[in-house]
Structure formats: structure tokens, C-alpha cells
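Task: fold both queries, return C-alpha cells.
Query 1:
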Amino acid sequence: MSALIVDNDAIALIDRARALNAQGAVIQGAWSRPPREPCGPELLCYRAALGGGPDEPCPSGVAPRWLSDMLPALDDGLAVDRVQPVFDRLTVALRLAAVQHWDAARWERVHIRVRVELVRLAWSYAERVRPADPPAWWLACERACADVIAALESGDSAAAERARAAAEAAAAAWAAAAWAARAAAA
């Protein structure tokens, strides 16, 4: 049986990010800010707390590139009251991944699950303003979201490509409808 080698540098960065998050030192809208108090912690966005920077991802032992690239948008897109709980859960998952040495296949399953949940979350917000009699472009968007989820969950690359194309077409239709509505209101 081979010995398990733990990336202590990655775990140290993850633990640091968790501690900063617990102290309320993870910020939104900037990479870093001076401490609030003379001896307080530097205020950092979540990716910076994990060792990444504006032009560099988190170290590979901390998070895969796709997740590192997603962190600034996630950080800035969360409601202020959701930052600490979301990043606390994410930090626990990152630490588990580092200790268990998740391989590329495991991270790909996580990536698929994240994308599925993001589509579901986005659509749940759209559903809040669903018209009583939805126009064709709305129904196309709804179908595209369902198709993207089904394709991601099936693992069928051809289905994924068709779903991607349908989603792009639906997004274009949605954008055109939004533009027309703004133009009509002007």
C-alpha cells in the first residue's frame, strides 16, 4: 500500500481562506483592501484568499482552473449575507478534495454538477417573472435550459453540443426580446 501524500501548502491556503472567511475578511468587488483595524486581517476576495490573483488562478492543489476562474464572478454575484455560508461550504469541500487527492475524473463530475445547479438556479430566478402566457422565446429558453441539464447529466457529447447551440439560440432570442422591450419603452 502506498503512502498518501498530502499537499500541505494547498491545505494551508485553504485553511487560511476558511479563517479569513470566518473573520468576515472575504470581500466583494475588489481583490484586496487594507485591514479594518490596525492589527486586523487584510481583506481579500475569496480567490485571493486561496492564493490566486487578478491574472492568476489558485494553485492547482487548491482548486482546478475552471473553479478558480469562476470564483470572482461567484464572489461578486452573491448576496452579502450569503458570502460567508457559501464560502464556508466551498472551503470544506476544497479541503476534502485536497486531503483525498481528487483526480481529474472526480473534478469533472463536480464541474458537471456545478454547471447543472447553476442552470437550475438561473432558471429559478427567471421563473419568478414568467409571463402568464409565455412567448415563444421564453419557451425556447426554458427548453434550452432543460436540454443543457439533460445533456450534462447524460455525458453524451453530441447531446451537449446540440444543447449548447440551442442555449445560444435561446439566449440570443431572449436578448433580442429584451432589446425590443427596452426600445418600445423608450
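Query 1 returned. Query 2:
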Amino acid sequence: RLQKKARSETQRLEMARTLLEKNQKLSFRRTHGAFIANLRASALLHGLLENSNSPAYVDALTASGQVSENLGDYTLGQYYYESCIRQLPHSLPAERCFSQLMTSVRETNPYIDSSMGDQYTVQMNLEKLRLLAGPIELKHVPSRYKDVDGP
């Protein structure tokens, strides 16, 4: 039964991705058909988001961010990307989510690289998320066994 459920989750994720790809290939983002296709994808994805232990959960977060942006809700899309990073830090999916988050932030706020007002707070949050998304950087840690590593 678990295999059937997992296969079902995989199938739902693939169906949602197919709807997203169709929208992107046809530059279909702002038409009535695209609206319906995005709502269908959203319904499929929200079923997957009910279980944070699902293997499809992180991919569903990423795709939900894309659907939200297609529907014009960039703030919700950014929330999904941030959730993806926090769910699986220091991983390839987290790096992809961070890349999509940065693209979204730059599209919605072209002055993000300036040092005006609240931008500092946004930049600091993005920097924290970048570090969380990327690989773990090992810093020099003093060792009790200094002779093992050499001088």
C-alpha cells in the first residue's frame, strides 16, 4: 500500500509539472486556460504538501512557488522557496530554491541591490538563506590531535 501511495504522489507531482511546463512553453501565464491549469497544478501540489515527510514534499514546495508566481502572488511564491530551503538545507534542491527565490525577489524589487531603507533587512535575510541553501563550509576547527593534520 505504501508503494501505491508513493507512486500516486510521484504521479501527482509529474502531472503538476506537466501543467507548469505547458504553461511556460506556450507563454500561457496570463490567459484563462493558464489560470485554470495553474489552479489544477496547485490542487495537486497542495495534496502533496499535507505530508512534510513525503519524498515529494520539497519538489512540491518548489513547484508551488512557481504556480504562485504564475498566478501573480510573488510573496507566496517566495514563501514556498524559503520553506524549501529550510526543509532541506545545504542540498541541491535548496540551492535551486534559493536561485528561484533570488530571481523572484529581483523581479518584484529591482532596487534590491541598493542600500535604500528596508533593503538592508531584505539583503540580510537573503544572505542567511543563501548560506542555508549552499553546501556546508567547513571552517578550521582547532583539533586536540594537531599532530595528525601536520604542523
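Both queries returned. Flag for query 2: Residues 2-25 form the longest helix (24 residues).
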